[in-house]
Amino acid sequence: MVKRQIPDTLMLEERAAHALNAMAGVADRDYGYVPFFAANLMAKPAYMTHGDWDYGSSHGRMIDGMILARHMSGETFGQEVEERYRSNLLSFFKEDGMSYRQWNEYHKWETNANLIDQRAVILSLTTWYMESGDPKVKEAADRHVAALKRIAIKERDIWYYPASEYKETGWPSANAVQLRLAPDPASFCGRLVMPLLKYHELTGNPDAFELCQFFTALIMERSRVFLEDGSFNDAPAYRSGHFHTRLGTLDAIARFGEFTRNAAMIGWVKKSYDWALTKCTAFGWTPGDLHEQAYEHETCSLVDLIATGITLARNGYVEYWGTVERFIRNHLAESQLLDLNWVEQSTDKSNDIRADRSYFKVADRTRGAFAGYSAPNDFCCDVIEGRGHTNDLQLCCLGSGTRGLYMGWSNGITEREGNVSVNFLLNRGSKWLDVDSYLPHEGKVVLHIRRDLPRLAVRIPEWAGFTKINVVRKRGDAVTEGSGKDPSSWINKCFLLLGAASEGETITITFPLSLRTTQENAVGQAFTAYWRGDDVVDISPKGRQKPLYSGRAVYDRAPMREGDYLRPDRELVW
């Protein structure tokens, strides 16, 4: 890469490289490289613990996250750990094609094929095959999809699973099948649609499509997970309206609607998505559920919000591009653990308990991880409401957070039939153009055109207006100026149409920054957020353990540094 001066602002591929440190660091090298699931960073010293999520769920999340992080960053760190994760994952399959939790010598968890785990398993196999084309991975995935179809209870218009765990001997209770005592369908069926659909797109597997079809019908037509007004059913049988599984299901159904060109399905998702946004903050904090875990935001839920918003934006609801960028710039970026000076760590293993917990260099090993449960203003959630302090890190959130970085990176610049669109005003390189973002310091974006483009459009934030937008185009010695005042230069509500662009051209777009405050409500807790453009630069009241949004330095002119962007020849399309 030829380095040049670029703005020293948020760069998602660098964040992905940091995430690789944590994804490799959580491996328990004294216990077969099985990753630890959770960490308590407020303890003195901090420690990590194993959990029954260690197997299909955690391994699947780590494999998926590491592949995506390497693809966008070019980083090679931790490859030997990733190979162990891959080997472990394949060893969890039994002859019936399902992925099973393993016996733990300390906790003796029950071995079963948990249905939540299966979603992470097929997700990782899909990304793994997308990246490698390895026939042994496809064979494992095909057998897995066939098993998921075989064990589903099939009725005329819907399919479902009658329990959260499947055993080698079959479903634990025939009575549960006969009486339709199915557990929460969003958790065990709805979220499966997303990776199954991508696997079908990738390979043409018909079983995967059939599962998507009948699971989607279950959710939309029979389940009552989502009520008529789009709200989440908060009954205990529906996990009290658990946000991660609800939003993950919306992400899945939005993608299925896009794939099947079902506009009504996309509209159905939008109704629930809009309701969910009323329960979240404008910068991306989400409740855990609507009752006991309401104060426990999961990075997983935020990434589901990001993914669903992107699909809705791709399908005509373009206002969500701005919504998603705010989530990426704020709570996704703030939820990543980069400063660990506040964490006390042990430098030896004398207090470690095999197969249970480790105190060894927890701060060093988890740098780059994402918050497991965060408050709007604090990395650690230690409120008096709900369950109080639980986990500061969870492995599912590390995998999801990395996937969230990838979704923002891969959708920042898109191309369709010669039309190139800059959707996010974030630093990003591509084969078409590079985007230098001076936000939040300056209202300025510079586009470096890398090849001739028939038609180029750039999303302008809604707060920037149009009367004071200035465009300077430079190609060689030729310089032209324009503005946003021409009505014909706007398309799709918020996109500035620049028309054809030429290789070697530089286009500088400037606009005034919006300095404003918003009053945010997080399940009855009030916060004041101070914005500079799309970035929260301060929040009140401030956090106590590891404050968020309180150390963001902003300047009148953006700081610069030497660097460049990674531009892979092939992108993994998720």
From TrEMBL:
Name of the protein in its database record: Uncharacterized protein
